[in-house]
């Protein structure tokens, strides 16, 4: 049997419009693994008005320990004629339908309810529940010695006193909750999303500046913390901007956030229609403003490219920080380490020179050990003719566009090393292959996005989005990108391509049809899945 729970998670709803179900359980012990429910008590409220109550004893069909009887007054005689949980649970779930669950030390009651729902094949009650103990620690802080229900009932002078019986404790919990909401309202806890964020917050609250979130939208978008002089300190994105910004003031134990809030004097929100618009706009604003509290905004400074330098007499692969001169590029990579791994993978298959010495066509010097091993064509001692070396360079260039054979050779080498139990070398070969596959996969989708010119797509919801040479069109004056993608634009393009790759879309139009080479595509996808699975183990 399934009980269908109606949806209540309208996170932007004012708390006065939310139905809350306050619940308390009495049990035979502390763990649902070896204990059972003996009593369920619950009461529902909306806008401070009591709507109904629910109370039933439950036959646990197991002995009740003496200390539990001493605590609650419930013994085996008390529950002898009570219904079993098979009858009590569906009645309670129907009573609580459509309401937000609230309990004191809520994880205890919620674990028991979920365990019984699982055992009886019912849907679990929606969670997480609101915990009045957590809310009290957040709102009252040092005003009470502890967050016990009896202590809070004394503090708020509740009409119902908790006494370890389910309905009385649920009623006391409801009174305490409404007292906490009165205090929380002055601190900005006004909607269901505010309440959820207050439950998740950490560290010391910064209530003093919480009003900066007033007026922000309860919807998707990007937000900017600004200093007194208007400088952008931090850029972020959220599905619910107001709730996310408020969460900073509810408490965060990271020093970086403390410093941010100390410097912030205002918050600006930019609403967005779609996830990709928020992702792209966040990356674009970070690139434009270089906010001091955005770590990701500085990441592009560590990025680099892999360049096949065709300007040299004897071309070789280089890790470079900028695009210049004649050559073929792969990247950008997030770090020089990843670029170096991809470089080493390519050099395993194509024996072009790896030395960094400047060489003219007639330069000669003693070859290195790689030449003796047959892993370098060794133009340094004249072993290879310029024409033959040019063939190697052309084959490497071709591999970057049609990498099927290259990747197959690298995969075969990795497997051979593993079979020979040369596990350290096999692990290095795997890391090199992973870095190369990731770069090739990104390069393909970035190329078809940029080369498509103006590209227009439509989402399942009917929203149309346009890109111009890889740049999302928002104001109409966006300038596109060239290939390889500039380092400071890499995060924006990756945000767009990752969304385009996974979102169900309809192509509306394009200057040039988005295409990628067939050769190597299946191999890239298969290896990406295989290497991702290996890294997750």
Main traits of this protein?
537 residues; alpha+beta; GIY-YIG endonuclease; 4 domains; four-stranded antiparallel β-sheet; elongated
Describe the overall structure.
By secondary structure, the protein is an alpha+beta fold. The protein has 17 helices and 15 strands. The strands form four sheets. It has a five-stranded mixed β-sheet with strand order 3-2-1-4-5. Strands 14-13-12-15 form a four-stranded antiparallel β-sheet, covered by helices on one side. It has a three-stranded antiparallel β-sheet with strand order 7-6-8. It is elongated and about 100 Å long. Residues 1-8 have low confidence and may be disordered.
- Multimerization status: single chain
Helical proportion? 40-55%
Globally, the shape reads elongated
- The first-to-last residue Cα distance is 37 Å
Q: Overall mean pLDDT score?
A: 87
- Measured by DSSP, the beta-strand proportion falls in 15-25%
Kindly name the structural category. Answer: alpha+beta
CATH class group of the largest domain: Alpha Beta
pLDDT under 50 segments (min length 5)? Answer: 1-8
Number of strands: 15
Q: What is the CATH topology of the largest domain?
A: Nucleotidyltransferase, domain 5
Radius of gyration: 32 Å
């Amino acid at each position: 049997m399934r009980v269908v729970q109606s949806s209540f998670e309208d996170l932007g709803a004012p708390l006065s419009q939310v139905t809350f179900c306050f619940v308390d359980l009495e049990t035979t012990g502390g763990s649902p693994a070896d204990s059972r429910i003996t009593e369920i008590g619950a009461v529902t409220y909306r806008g401070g008005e009591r709507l109904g109550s629910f109370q039933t004893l439950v036959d646990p069909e197991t002995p009740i320990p003496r200390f539990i009887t001493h605590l609650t007054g419930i013994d085996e005689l008390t529950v002898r004629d009570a219904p079993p949980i098979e009858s009590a649970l569906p009645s309670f779930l129907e009573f609580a339908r459509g309401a937000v669950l609230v309990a004191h030390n809520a994880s205890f009651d919620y674990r028991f309810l979920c365990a019984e729902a699982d055992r009886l094949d019912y849907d679990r009650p929606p969670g997480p529940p609101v915990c009045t103990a957590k809310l009290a620690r957040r709102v009252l802080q040092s005003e009470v010695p502890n967050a016990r229900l009896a202590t809070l009932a004394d503090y708020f002078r509740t009409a119902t006193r908790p006494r370890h019986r389910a309905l009385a404790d649920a009623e006391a919990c409801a009174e305490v909750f409404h007292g906490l909401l009165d205090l929380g309202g002055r601190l900005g806890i006004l909607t269901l999303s505010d309440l959820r964020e207050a439950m998740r917050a950490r560290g010391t609250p910064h209530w003093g500046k919480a009003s900066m979130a007033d007026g922000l939208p309860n919807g998707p978008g990007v937000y900017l913390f600004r200093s007194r002089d208007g400088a952008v300190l931090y850029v972020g994105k959220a599905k619910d901007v107001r709730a996310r910004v408020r969460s900073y003031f509810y408490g965060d134990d990271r020093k970086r956030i403390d410093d941010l809030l100390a410097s912030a004097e205002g918050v600006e929100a930019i609403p967005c229609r779609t996830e990709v618009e928020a992702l792209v706009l966040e990356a674009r604003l970070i690139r434009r403003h270089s906010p001091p509290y955005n770590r990701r905004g500085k990441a592009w400074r560590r990025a680099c490219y892999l360049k096949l330098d065709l300007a040299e007499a004897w071309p070789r692969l280089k890790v470079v920080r900028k695009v210049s001169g004649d050559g073929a590029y792969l990247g950008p990579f997030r770090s020089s380490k990843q670029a170096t791994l991809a470089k080493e993978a390519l050099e395993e298959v194509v024996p072009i020179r790896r030395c960094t010495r400047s060489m003219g066509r007639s330069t000669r010097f003693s070859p290195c050990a790689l030449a003796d091993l047959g892993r370098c064509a060794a133009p340094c001692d004249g072993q290879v003719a310029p024409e033959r070396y040019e063939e190697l360079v052309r084959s490497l260039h071709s591999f970057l566009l049609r990498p099927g054979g290259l990747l197959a050779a690298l995969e075969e080498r990795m497997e051979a090393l593993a079979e020979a139990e040369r596990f350290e070398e096999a692990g290095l070969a795997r890391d090199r292959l992973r870095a190369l596959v990731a770069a090739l996969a990104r390069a393909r989708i970035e190329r078809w996005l940029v080369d498509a010119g103006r590209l227009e797509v439509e989402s399942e919801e009917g929203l149309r989005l346009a890109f111009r040479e890889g740049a999302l069109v928002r104001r109409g004056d966006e300038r596109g990108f060239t290939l390889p993608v500039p380092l400071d634009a890499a995060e924006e393009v990756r945000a767009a391509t990752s969304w385009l790759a996974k979102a169900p879309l309809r192509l509306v139009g394009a200057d040039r049809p988005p295409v990628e080479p067939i050769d190597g595509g299946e191999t890239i996808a298969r290896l990406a899945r295989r290497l991702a699975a290996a890294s997750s183990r």
